[in-house]
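Following up on my earlier message about S-adenosylmethionine. Here are the inputs again, as you asked, copied directly from the submission form:
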Amino acid sequence: MAKNKTVVDFTKVKPYNQDEEKTAQLARMFNTISGKYDQFNDIMTWGLARSWRRTSLLSLKQYNPKRILDIAAGTADMCIKSYKFLNPDHVTGVDISDQMLDMGRVKVEKAGLSDKIDLQVQDVSAMTFADGSYDAATIAFGIRNFEKLDLSLQQINRVLTTGGHLLILEMNEPEKGLLFKGYQLYTKVFVRMTSKLLSSDKKAYDYLQASMHAFPNGERLINILSQNGFKLNKYRKFTFGVCSMYLVEKI
Ligand SMILES: C[S@@+](CC[C@H](N)C(=O)[O-])C[C@H]1O[C@@H](n2cnc3c(N)ncnc32)[C@H](O)[C@@H]1O
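Thanks, got it. Here's what our run produced:
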């Protein structure tokens, strides 16, 4: 672990207050920023999120998944890219924010994929799908928000078929000293400036930064995944380690 990074309990990092459930606060927060989310995501990642999504999805191609579940689907970028790159029979996207999904539905319709992609309001920790319903699941920039991380991973494990794959893409702070300091400065100044320009909900962007700092990444996340029934196939860092990809398999 990096010497200059303090460990914060990620379950305590919430957008608005400590009393209310984190999931309810997050649904509200993402509803509020849904109209600006894509723009913010592009600016904050210098457009790199698009190539991170693409490259990570291509790692699933060799398994030829036919039923794909995208968790924390948001505005449906991952669902649409999954369909285009992996050619499955169907993609289901779930999210707790109905307004993020509404933005996604417009994009799905524009892409002419309404009969191939369906978007549902569901909390990952209490999904209603039958056991073994999916060949692959994906989570892009969503896992660090999950209030009940173990339960959520157990649910994902349950709805995947044995040998099915889970692909996780998540932003994190680089581990090493100088890069870590530089990245902190970048998020403090640039991201805060952008968030002020794009949104009235300043707390939302403070939360995004704080959750990135607190969420376990690398070995710590790989251990959590293995405690919840997954074995690691591939771990890869993108762009100086500001984004990581984990490809794991249900055992
Ligand atoms: C940063 S956005 C990512 C959206 C999208 N996957 C992307 O690639 O841009 C995180 C999403 O996670 C969703 N989310 C947070 N907690 C969730 C939960 N418990 N179950 C399902 N979705 C959740 C939020 O509503 C939000 O849309």
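One observation from looking it over: The chain has a mean pLDDT of 90. Hope that helps, and feel free to reply on this thread.
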